[in-house]
Amino acid sequence: MRHLPYFCRGEVVKGYGRGSKELGIPTANFSEQVVESFPSDIPTGIYYGWACVGNGDVHKMVLSIGWNPFYKNIKKSVETHIIHTFKEDFYGEILSIVITGYIRPEKNFDSLDALILAIQEDIEEAKRQLDLPEHLKLKEDNFFHLPEGKIVNNH
Ligand SMILES: Cc1cc2nc3c(=O)[nH]c(=O)nc-3n(C[C@H](O)[C@H](O)[C@H](O)COP(=O)(O)O)c2cc1C
Ligand SMILES: Nc1ncnc2c1ncn2[C@@H]1O[C@H](COP(=O)(O)OP(=O)(O)O)[C@@H](O)[C@H]1O
Ligand SMILES: [Mg+2]
Prior knowledge:
The chain is of the alpha+beta class. The chain has one domain (6-144): Riboflavin kinase-like (Elongation Factor Tu (Ef-tu), domain 3, Beta Barrel). The chain contains three helices and six strands. It has a six-stranded antiparallel β-barrel with strand order 1-2-5-4-3-6. Flavin mononucleotide binds next to strand 4, strand 5 and helix 2.
């Protein structure tokens, strides 16, 4: 897909506080500035890739770009669920991501359970895809080892 791999770095802000954390699927939401910096023609939907908080380790992630049709959000969001258990929240920290692949478009669901099940399937798909050499190699990209602030989106 055009635009991929897509490198991006930005601050983690509060989302709609829908308690995705209680559902077991917290998502680190990017600031509005970062959301607006995304290419306008990058399709909304569910993606996977690699993520790192501050200078921490690089982990697998799934990402949602769009308006969350289940919730009918007014504002577009870019949210990353990192496939790792963190001891604490990291609001205000710098999240670095590389998006390497696309899974599916955003969908509406009949129930919250159906949404959760779909996200769990996305996570399993991401785990499998990211073990393939083509995606695995981006885990080691220099982007994750450069000092913060030196990088603007996709450069
Ligand atoms: C992998 C993944 C897939 C998602 N798929 C959908 C989807 O198909 N439809 C939808 O409405 N929301 C989808 N979401 C977004 C959730 O609705 C969202 O993370 C939740 O509303 C929490 O939002 P908040 O961070 O603003 O509190 C997805 C999120 C993730 C991480
Ligand atoms: N594995 C994880 N992936 C993403 N965020 C996480 C993770 N573990 C803890 N968090 C924290 O949870 C927050 C997101 O929780 P969430 O319920 O989506 O709230 P919000 O609506 O504010 O985005 C993140 O900003 C981050 O500080
Ligand atoms: Mg969130």
